[in-house]
Fold:
Amino acid sequence: MATGNHSALLAAVLGCVEDGVLTMDADFRITSFNRAAERITGVSARDALGKRCSEIMRADVCEDGCVIRKVLDTGGKVIDQPARICTQDGGPASVSLSAAAFFDGDGGLLGAVEAFRARPAGRARKGVVGRLEPSLLGRAEADAIRRALSATGGHIGLTAKELGISRTTLWRKMKRYRIRVGG
Structure:
């Protein structure tokens, strides 16, 4: 397919989906922003293009839970990560974020895509955790956690110490990989 046709097809696809979709380059600068993204955020594509994702989304996860950073760290995909963004008018909006990154043949980051959808206002956020589809590295991490839990008889404090991480980090990783003590 010719590049021009491919671009037109991509624009048509992104124009007809209900999810907000943005793409960004390796510097986290927005390279595309569909109509649904405009509707959900209240920011026009014209104003979003070229700006850093965090400037536009202003999500509660941008600083220490960025879904793109999570993808880069794990090599996996993030699917349905709950977050709250700040819309153009200053109001909060609950969204679900999904993300993936794209690499060249040498492993260099080409860019990333982030999709998001508005979540119903009544849907509780507490206890809802995004689903991470683990990469090979993520599966190895989950296996290491399971082995350490088994070796310590399921003792969280000893397991965290054995792995060289905090108890909080261990709990977070157990939740991410759906690991239960004794399971």
